[in-house]
Amino acid sequence: MSAADAPGREVLARVFLSRVLEPGDEVAGRWVRERGAVEVARCLRAGGPQLVGVTDKRWGGLLTRAQEADAARDLEVARDAGVRFVVPGDAEWPGQLDDLGDGRPLGLWVRGPASLRMWALRSVAVVGARACTEYGAHMAATLAAGLAERGWVVVSGGAYGVDGAAHRGALGAGGATVAVLACGVDQAYPRGHTQLINRIAEQGVVVGELPPGDHPTASRFIVRNRVIAALTRGTVVVEAAHRSGSLVTARAARRLGRHTMGVPGPATSSLSAGVHELLRDDAVLVTDAAEVVELVGDMGELAPQRRGPVLPRDLLEPGARRVLAALPGRGTASVAAVARGAQTTPDDAIARLYELRALGYVERHGDSWKLTRQAMISVRGGRS
Amino acid sequence: MSAADAPGREVLARVFLSRVLEPGDEVAGRWVRERGAVEVARCLRAGGPQLVGVTDKRWGGLLTRAQEADAARDLEVARDAGVRFVVPGDAEWPGQLDDLGDGRPLGLWVRGPASLRMWALRSVAVVGARACTEYGAHMAATLAAGLAERGWVVVSGGAYGVDGAAHRGALGAGGATVAVLACGVDQAYPRGHTQLINRIAEQGVVVGELPPGDHPTASRFIVRNRVIAALTRGTVVVEAAHRSGSLVTARAARRLGRHTMGVPGPATSSLSAGVHELLRDDAVLVTDAAEVVELVGDMGELAPQRRGPVLPRDLLEPGARRVLAALPGRGTASVAAVARGAQTTPDDAIARLYELRALGYVERHGDSWKLTRQAMISVRGGRS
Fold this sequence. Notes:
2 copies of one chain form a homodimer. With 384 residues, the first copy, chain A, is of the alpha/beta class. Chain A has helices spanning 9-20, 26-35, 37-46, 56-68, 71-80, 116-121, 134-149, 162-172, 194-203, 218-231, 245-255, 270-280, 289-296, 299-307, 318-326, 335-342, 346-358, 373-383, and strands at 83-86, 108-111, 123-127, 153-156, 177-181, 205-208, 234-237, 259-262, 284-285, 333-334, 362-365, 368-371.
């Protein structure tokens, strides 16, 4: 890291706090909102004064963690693992996470070529049981592939079962997928998904609240789910038993005003019982990607297309500009052709294409991409 | 038929009209409402004057049918087949059919030991595809058995597939079931269900709008569905493809203000696609009989139990009084024991028990029956 890149006090404080505090701690979130991250970090490092709303025992635990935390070292380890740290106010920060209030992440550790903020704009969570049935795996993969083909980003938790099938379905369709982990994003959890998670980090985005090296715990899985719910426009639960963690994600989505959806299954399947419970509340029954997009792709989503791209071409990142320029003025192009034209890798081309999709410049049609009508006008206008 | 039993002019007119007019003909229903059945029948027999709202061609067809109709003979054939004819205003007429307005049946041909009116008070329709899957047949049978065990009457259309499974599920649980046919109730349609329909006529009720000997047609199946919807508190669709006749029943139920329910299935099954379509509208997802009863057994249903039986004991039919007297003051009794105590057949005992259930006198618990608390007080009061 050069001197010009040196992290500011705010970033260092948030890295430090992400090591000391547990994700989703709303009492701590309130301290940070009221006093600022730098002051809270200073107070924890100095051993006092004791912050309000915390027991002596817990305060002691935090001070011990604070003594062991080394923000500069965490950033160094992260950088070596290809991981960046994104904080509120950064260009890549997904603003919709602010809906979590004092439960908002202190920052996000991010691995992968795409802009998390851009991707999250047009994303849907597909979650469900780890011990899913073949039917559940099939539905997760099919839904995710269908969403990817419609230019939507598939967000899930990287777990076995439905999550893995959803990630793989999106990857297999040359699509965009985000894994939100409950551990450090340099870790692969579960171990059996090491290759999958590394693949997501190449073609998609791996993201989490926990600093490098940190391990998942039962409660971390639960609080991680609120990030999946908040990042996305809606959550689809594919299979879930009663009291499944996926229902926590769906209920968080509902509380946050996101769409909650469920895929029906046989009434005789205990792995559909939790989904049916959701559907008997107010979740919407969906059976394919078209129905999901019909729900989440509301007027707000379509509007930018009609108004034209939301960001002027000149303000695009150079990589995105090159990919945009590689698309033909008429007709469609494959990812491979776009990558060749932009002189980049297919993975990078996919990352940029879904960013451009979120901005209203391009559309996906089956396995090909094309300029939107508005983008064509703007490009031709620019060329004339 | 003795002179004392001789049918009145109104009944004869309605028998005649049920032979001449097609079920569900709302134009004809309006004639009957405005001029009375006797006058409409006289006009059709006399060949004029031509009634309003009917083409010359159709009028000619009606006159031909009128020439061939013989109401007295129809009643005789029906009586020989153990079929009675119930008209609006009769003690056995189910008042909720009046919700059909001018589409209300002119009368109902009824076969079976129970009171259709009593049974319809606590009834649920379970309908679905003829070519159902094993899953659909299993769910229909399980739901129907569960409803029967909770003291509810299962209404269906007597068809292959879901209908047959629902009837059999109710019969197998020693329960009450009603088959609403789209042909004369002395006919067995489909032929493969001859034994089933005869069995329903012994332990339950077979009912229809068409006079003895009449055959079903495609349109008669469709208009029959409105009777299923109107008779019951709600309609459960178990399996149905897109554009299935069961969806007609469900939509009629919704229009009539009845509950509409659907059993989910795999999103990959075309036989669940129609049900999922309903559930994406405003039908309620149900997975077992308890959920159905939770919905249809509302306060209106429970209220009579709290207030005590709705009909004084002295006004009960002698058969029902005998069955009531055969129940123990404390504890439960099987159908066989009740039948022995009342000196009647088990089928008759079942008919009376479900009537008494509708009136708030008795409850079913698993395979046994007992007096409700209010009935016990009333019985003990009567005995003291």
